[in-house]
Each structure stands twice: as structure tokens, then as C-alpha cells.
Amino acid sequence: MAITKVKSLKGEITVPGDKSISHRGVMFGAISEGITELTGFLDGADCRSTISCFRAMGIDISQENDHVIIHGKGLHGLNAPTNMLDVGNSGTTTRLISGILSGQPFVSALNGDASIQKRPMGRIITPLSEMGAYIRSLKDNGCAPLEMGGKPLKAIHYNSPVASAQVKSCVLLAGLYADGVTSVSEPVISRNHSELMLSGFGAKIKTEGLTASIEGFPKLVGQKIDVPGDISSAAYFIVAGLICPNADLLIKNVNTNPTRAGIIKVAQAMGGNIELLNERIIGGEPVADIHVTTSKLNGCEISGEIIPTLIDEIPVIAVMAACADGTTIIKDAAELKVKESDRIATVTENLKAMGCDITPTDDGMIINGGKLHSTIVNTYMDHRIAMAFAIAGLVADGETTFDNEGCCCISYPNFFNVLQQIVNK
Q: Which of 19, 71, 105, 248 qualifies as a cystine partner to 60, CB 3.0-4.6 A?
């Protein structure tokens, strides 16, 4: 795949279903009674890993493209898997399913690819152990493979040292299997899809300030869920519409949940022409069509409470900053180091290769905007790096290529096809 500078960018597109909601729809449907039906499901490798894990535990799940039907067996209906569960490249699958598995009467184990085996799981091992769970890192390094389950759980209040929806969701899901009320407090609010969706399935869950709590042993009932477009996927086209010449782009049906939509605030703060149209609520989630046009952007500081709302979008935000006038400072984002790749290092390496003046820091980066030229992008098999630098290639002199663009299938299998449909070279 080669990307070259474009003359204009115009069109109306939709993006794949929200990855976070797709994962949760399968998980919550599996432990609910009756049928859960998902439309708009993200048919990507990560979400397929979640389906595979629950099929291995006896859940009947049928899928036809973005339409998925889960025949739930209730809170206690899972069967012990006969083999180690394979979570692939999915951190969401790993951490959320661990909360469910820790509450089962059987012992099970899970593992994933080389990337998953380096990602920190101590952040879930600690609270689950406090709940009385049996859970251990089989290599004693705080990472997958993990083994868990077979012991009763007790309700706790957990003060999470990180703002992480995966940690919060893991503890809340374990709380489904604990007597009493389990609660999690965070330093700042992380995405709240689990709270919204679990409530829809019938869980007794509430949020007060920075604390979410859930009562144990509810009766969950299957739901019909219309999955909106994923703002993390829309982010690439938001940035493309802002930095490319003669751009006018409408991205339809995107989840604009404020715990996820920090990129919209950042784009506006940098002077971006971005507006939300046809705003509505679907299944408790705010949804809108996003209209973007070519903009003169200025650098800004991105830090503090907004970081958890855009952590997955920072690679493409860095590309946007590289095309803006002045300096952009990104900080309080040390979490970037433990994603599919060390995204502080990978973003820095590739933007430097494109001629950008960028300095990495312990918790982010400092970017001075300027002109970009082409390079061979080292993706490190990280889907968000590949897609972010595809967008950079739209404004870079020369021909931008990739060591492996196939990693996009993790979250956006059709990304390059959609990109080609809206560019004018």
C-alpha cells in the first residue's frame, strides 16, 4: 500500500461499529438470559477474539458480517473451556473477560499474541486478588498467560491508581459474582460504556462522581443493541478532513460519548472546522454525524483529565499537531507506553522519519508543526500507528509506504478501501 499527497478530500462515509461496545455486547449477552442481538457489530480481529472465547465456553453465537446473535445462558451458564482461551491481540478481551472468569466455579486460562504477553495485567490481578479470586500470571511476570477462577469472590471498594475503563470494567464484572456492592474509584473518569450497557441489561449499577458501583448476582436479560460508529475509527478521517487541502467530509452515525470524544474538543481547541449534526441518543449513547472541512490549525497543550477520553487517538492527534502552526505539548499520557506498541516511541520514530520536529517525554511528546515528507512507516504491528501514518501520507511529499499495513484488520479491516474512495490525487 502506497499513500501520496492528495489534491482534495470529499465524501460521506460511515465507520465500523464501536469496538468497545461490540466487545461488551458479546460478553454481557453471553452471561444474560435469552437472546442478545447486535447490529453494526465491529467485524474485526479483536472482537472476533471475544466471540471465540465465549464459544469455547459453550455460548451459541452466530455472526453474519456486522449482525451477531448471542444465545445467553445467564450469569452461571458458562462451561469450563477445554483449552486455553485465545484473546489474540485484544487487551479489552483480556482484561474484561478476566473479571467474568474470576467469578466462575471452574479454573480457566487465557493467552494472546506476543503483544498481549507484554501488556501489564498486574493492574487487574491486584483488585481481583483483593476480591478473593484465584488469579496468577503463569510466567510470574504480571502478564499473560493468566490462570484464574474456582474461588468465591467478595465485594470490595477499589481505588484504581489509573483511569482505565478496562480495569474498572474488570472489577465491576467480577462484582457481578460477589455478595454485596463492589465499587471502583478512579483518579479521573474513564469511558463508561460498561456502566451504560450493564444498566440496560438489568444490572443494579450507579455512578457517583469518580466512583462506579454494582450489586452482585443480578438477573441480566438479553438486549437488542444498535452499535454506533467508533469514534476511534472516525478520528483518522476527522484529522484527514482538517489537514488535507480542499476537504469537506461527513462521517455519519458516530458515537460521541463525552468519555470517548476528547479528540473533538482538541480539534476545536486547535482551530478545527468541526461540527456535530443530527445529534441523538441511541441505547443510552450519544450519537452524531461529524462534519469537517480544511482548517488552519494551531498547536495547543493536551493534558490532564482529557487524556483518558482520547488515549487511543493520540497517534493521529500527533499527526494533526505535526501539521499545525506552533507547538503542541502532549503530557500525562504515560499509558501510551503499554498499548499494542510503545506509542510514544513509535509515533516519535515515524514522525521524525517524516521530517517532524518532535521530542519524546516520559509521559507524552512535544511536537513543532511543519512540513512532512514520505517514509517507510514502521507499524510495529500496531493498527493505530498504521492508520495514523496513512493520514500523514495524505499531506506528505513523496510516497508513504508501510512495513505491514495488514494490522489494520484489528479494528478497521476496510480502512484503506474507504480512504481511497474519498481522495482526489
A: 71
Q: Are residues 281 and 372 in the same domain?
A: yes
Q: Clarify whether residues 362 and 216 are in a common domain.
A: no
Residues 221 and 285 in one domain: no
Q: Do 271 and 208 share a structural domain?
A: no
pLDDT in tens, 289-340: 999 999 999 999 999 999 999 999 999 999 999 999 999 999 999 999 999 9
Q: What is the mean pLDDT of residues 134-151?
A: 98
Around Cβ 363, how many Cβ atoms within 10 Å? 16
Q: How confident is the model at residue 1 (pLDDT cuts 50, 70, 90)?
A: confident
**Dist. CA 160–CA 169, nearest whole Å:** 11
End-to-end CA distance of the chain: 15
Average pLDDT for 267-281: 98
Do 7 and 36 lie in one domain? The reply is no
Each residue's pLDDT tens digit, 204-224: 999 999 999 999 999 999 999
- Residue 312 annotated in active site: yes
One domain for residues 141 and 39: yes
pLDDT of 425: 67
Query: Quick check: helix, strand or coil at residue 23?
Result: helix
87 with 46: CB under 8 angstroms? no
Residues contacting 413, CB < 8 A, separation 6+ = 16, 43, 44, 45
Q: Across the chain, what does the average pLDDT equal?
A: 97
- Looking at the fold, whether 364 and 419 belong to one and the same domain comes out as yes
Quick one: which of 69, 83, 309 has its CA closest to 189? 309
Please tell me whether residues 296 and 156 are part of one structural domain: no
Task: Give the whole-number percent of the chain exceeding pLDDT 90.
Answer: 99
Measured CA to CA, the distance from residue 265 to residue 205 in angstroms comes to 29
Q: In one letter, which amino acid is 309?
A: T
CATH number of the domain residue 309 falls in = 3.65.10.10
Structural contact between residues 161 and 90, judged by C-beta atoms closer than 8 angstroms = no
| Domain total of the chain | 2
DSSP state of 397: B
Catalytic residue, candidates 18, 46, 230, 312? 312
- Pick the last residue of a domain from 199, 226, 253: 226
- DSSP character at residue 16: P
User: Is the previous residue joined to 187 through a cis bond, with omega within 30 degrees of 0?
Assistant: no
**Spatial distance between the Cα atoms of 69 and 65, rounded to a whole number of angstroms:** 11
